[in-house]
Each structure stands twice: as C-alpha cells, then as structure tokens.
Amino acid sequence: MNKKTYYITTPIYYPSGKLHIGHSYTTVAADAMARYKRLQGYDVMFLTGTDEHGQKIQRVSAEHGMTPKEYVDKIVDGIKKLWDLMKISNDKFIRTTDDYHVKAVQKIFKALYDKGDIYKSEYEGWYCTPCESFWTETQLEDGKCPDCGRSVEKTREESYFFRLSKYQDRLIKHLEENPEFIQPTSRRNEMINNFLKPGLEDLCVSRTSFNWGVPVTFDDKHVVYVWIDALSNYITALGYGSDDDENFRKFWPADVHLVGKEIVRFHTIIWPAMLMALDLPLPKQVFGHGWLVLDGGKMSKSKGNVVDPVILVEKYGVDAIRYFLLREVPFGSDGVFSNEALISRINSDLANDLGNLVSRTVAMINKYFEGVLPEERQTGEFDEDLKNILVSVKGKTEELLDKLQFSTALSEIWKAVSRTNKYIDETMPWVLAKEEKNRPRLAEVLYNLAESIRIISIIIQPFMPETPLKIWEQLSIPEDQRTWESAGSWGVYRQNSPVKAGAVLFPRIDMEKELKSLENLNPDTETEKEKQEKKEKSVAGVKLVTIDDFAKLDLRVVKVLSCEKVEKSNKLLKLIVRCGNEERQIVSGIAEYYKPEELVGKKLVLISNLKPAKIRGIESQGMILAATDDKAGKLVLVTVDGDIDDGAKVS
Ligand code: MSP
Predict the structure, then answer these.
(1) Which of 77, 120, 293, 581 is the most exposed place for a label (fewest CB within 10 A)?
(2) Which pLDDT tens digit goes with each residue over 572-587?
C-alpha cells in the first residue's frame, strides 16, 4: 500500500538582509511538523526556499554595488547555512531564480492570460516596496501601508491585471464551508470581514518600472508581480509546469502552508484565486502564526537583546533554541522575545526538569546496579499513576500537533517530565537503597524512571533533533525501542548494555553573568554614560555642528540642461546643470528613481564646492542633494519652492 503523504511549506524568505530569530520561527515550526509526520510513517515533503525577485531586492543589491543575482546568491548561501545549523530537515529548497521555477511561472502567467483571467490595463495607485504590495487610496491607513505602516509610493504604469474580483464569491463560499482552511479562526474572520466582504478589486500582476523579475513571455517590457511569482513556488517546486510533475501529482494539495500573520492575505485570497483560475485544488490549510517581537518593538531593532540565531545556537545549542521558540508562545499569538526569558526557560525546563531527570536516573542505575537493571523487580505504590500519565503523552501530543499547537504539546510533555521527577521524590530510591531486601523494589523504581525517559525521549524528537540521541546513548536504548509507535506502550525498555553517564544535557546558566556577556556581544548596547554624551552632542540622533562648519559648504540652485544614463550602469545618471553663468557636469546615483527626461528643466540644489571626483571614469563637479528614506526605499531630489534664478545661493 502507498504511504500517506504530508506536504508542508514555509514562506519563501526575502534574501534582503540578515535573518533574525523571528525568521527562524516559521521554519522551526514547519520542521517540527515534518519530523513528527515522518515519525508517524508519512511520506513527507517539506519545502522552504527564497523569494528573490522584486523591486526591494533590486534596490538593496544596487545599494551594495552588486547585481541582484550576485547579491541574492550571497545571502541565500547564508540562509541555507542557518537552516543547517538549526537542523532544518527540508526535503527541497526552492529559489525563485531557479530556471525551472521561472519557466513554470511564465507558463502559469500565459495560461491565465490565454484564459482571459489576466488582461492588460493601466495601474494607478500606491505601492509599498518593503511589502511588495499594491494598495488603493481607500485601503491606506493615514496615508501609509496598512500592513507595515511604512510610506507608500504613487505608481502609474501600464500593467497586466488578474481578475481577482471574479473569484470573490467562490472564495467566500470556500472559507465559509471550510472552517479549517484558515487557522486560527480569528484570522479567517479578519479575511472575510476586512477583505472579502468589502469586495475584491482586480490585482495588478506585472511591473514595468524595474526589471528584476520573471519576464512576461509575450510582452517583454513587463515582469511578473513578485507575489504571483512567489506564491507559485508551492507548486513549481513539485514540478508543476515542467516535464516531471510526479511530485506534484503525489503531494498536491498541500496539507498546510505555514505563514506569518502579515502574509495570510496573500495566501488565503490571491493564492486560492490563482489556483481556482488554474483549475487546481486548494491547499487544505493556511496557518497564520503570530510574531516574535522585542519588548516595545520589532525584532529588526535589536535593542539590547541578541537576536542573531547563529550566535544563540552556538551559545545554547540548537535544541534549546528550538524548544524555546516552540514552547514560549502559543502558535498563533504574538510573543515577546528576550534573552532573559530564553535563559530562564533553559534553566527551568531543560537543565532542571529534563536534564536532571536523565542524569539522576543514569547515576542511580550506575550506583545501585552497576549500570544494568536486574530482571527481578517489584511493583509498588505510585507506579500505576506514573505509567498511566506516560502512556497517554503520545496521544495527547499527536492531537495537539495535528492542530499545530506546539506550545501546548510541549507543556503536556513537560507535565510528564514533572510527573516523573515527582515519582523520584515519592519513591525515594536513596532510602530504598539502604536495605538489601528492597532491591527488587529499587530496581522497579529505576526501571520505571528509565522507561518514562524512553517515552519522553521519543516524543521530543520533532522539537529537538539532538537531545534524544544523547539520552538513548546514556540509557543504552536500542533502536527497536525508539520507534514512534513504542512511545504509546509501557514496559518496552530492555537494556543490551549498561547505562553510561554522559555530558550534562543542558548546563545551568548563571543568569546575571550571562545577560551581561550578551550585552557586550551586542554592538547596539551602550552604557548610560555613552548614551548621555551622545544625546548632548546630538539632536534626534544627529551629531551637532557649528555655523562655521555649515558655512564651509557652498550650496547653489542649479538648472538641469540635459541628462542621460551612464553606459553600463543601472544606477548612474550624467547631468549637465547651469549655475548662473557656469555649466557643470554631475554624476549622480539616482537612475533607479528618475528617468533622464524627467529631470531636464528641474531646479535642484548643488554642493558646488565639493572637490571634483571621478565616478566610472567620468568627472563629477559637485553633488546634487536628495532626500532618502531607506526604510521605504525612497529617494527624492531637493528642489526650491518658487521661482528663483539658477546660481542663487542656498543658506
Ligand atoms: N517573501 C515573502 C513570503 C513569500 S511566500 C510565497 C516574505 N518573506 S519574509 O522573509 O519577509 O518573511 C518570511 C516569514 O518570516 C514570514 O512568514 C514572516 O511572518 C516571518 N517572520 C519575519 N519576522 C518575524 C518575527 N519577528 N516573528 C515571527 N515570524 C516573523 O514575507
């Protein structure tokens, strides 16, 4: 008989900067599910990858002076290394720059066009570059992106549109008839009430203002909108649209797409509508988890806490970090990350509860029975209760994991750990050991402890890839006694060899010392004195200068006479400007923001006494001023408010 299949995905990550511990959250959760289903005997496909096209990547790579591909190659390499470090067991890693994906996206786009579900028109509205999403005037909140709160840019382009509106009724029906489709339920209601019921507009699905994307085969000015490209990964990774679609036939529809809450909208409206248009079945579930944030802010601003997953894993081990991520916050809710909370979890749950249980049990089997438990054993009080709790853990964990309730599942498992620790206090093996006649009872007590640990070590496997191996080694648990199935039975443990004490599983951490040492690791952390000094010398974080410093600069109004692109450069424009009765040649890195013809005739502000410099072999005689908003990826040139002759001094 064919094995049952299980297909789980994470979002594909933007390789636009360093990943922080929050990014590891979805991937670790998906990995736990994949491991769990494999243990249950499923044929699993676990997909992750990178989302490499779009305006944001094009801009960031230009800022680094690299081509987009050079830039993403480097970052993707780091992401793959991070997943290795976190012991992520993905079966496939897709890059949207992979050739097979690009071809399949082109086929999908063409198929939708041929069907009439994609048509050509003109887009006018707002675009949030960091989110790569389009908004209408009414959707903006205080003029900002409603998803991330950042500035949006006015966009007007000839574009292709996807008939999203056509699928509105079918989508509402699907969501209403399939309550499991979006989880948690609160997110489902949000989608129905905030997006579907008010009415869907057709979606702009191509761009012409930049070129880092999948080209539209039948209209090469256009690249495919990055979300259409990205969402398709869930089927192209399985070979959809290629000659070999065996995996697609085997694994689609996905059992679950795990996504962060801010991208639920794309996965539960745009993606299902695309699938409907392609006549393909919809994924069984989209689960929108919450965010890990820092006290008072986003993860990206690290504020005194170390959030670099590489440092954290190297310091505390992969199992501790994975345990913390999945235990600390109920999956679905937002949660606060802090180094203090992490260390406190490691000390209480891992070092104290689990680590001590294993080391005490191994030590007692060694001390009282030279490492091998005798066959002659005697049952007694408390055994039945321990056994009942332990054999029920597997079922409870399965039930919770099937609902992606990682935190509650771990809390159930840890109830069993605590119950086992309590059993030591109740039976007091060190008292039993005082009298020879108690040896059969002592043997039974230690056997029950070992058997409980065996069960626990099996059930924690989805969450912790390293610790179970260490436990099996120390307690000499043979392979046939570690199967997932066997965690539901009692009395399985049979030693082939003596137990062996090993290294402490989770060393206790001195909280105070550790927090200090983490603070020193964090370049963002300043002492109070440094902060005060900085404040005195600055306004809004900017260093103060004197009026004499400012007077050193000669700023002038100039008029752009002509402008052209610098050959073989995506970033540079060459401008000829007039400053009174003098002409100047200026090279400026603004080509991604302005077309040459837009600048002719404009009045700009020039630093006219800047030493001339050669840029790409062309002399630049000064610098024109521009305002930049790095967060929004925006740049606008500084102009003068009113009519004034060029050459006028700006002061
Ligand atoms: N590229 C898109 C996804 C396309 S899927 C077809 C994207 N990428 S991302 O890199 O910005 O985010 C990837 C995932 O990381 C998202 O699910 C996001 O919610 C998650 N996280 C990013 N920061 C996070 C936290 N601080 N906490 C938890 N998860 C967060 O979106």
Answers:
(1) 581
(2) 899 999 999 889 999 9
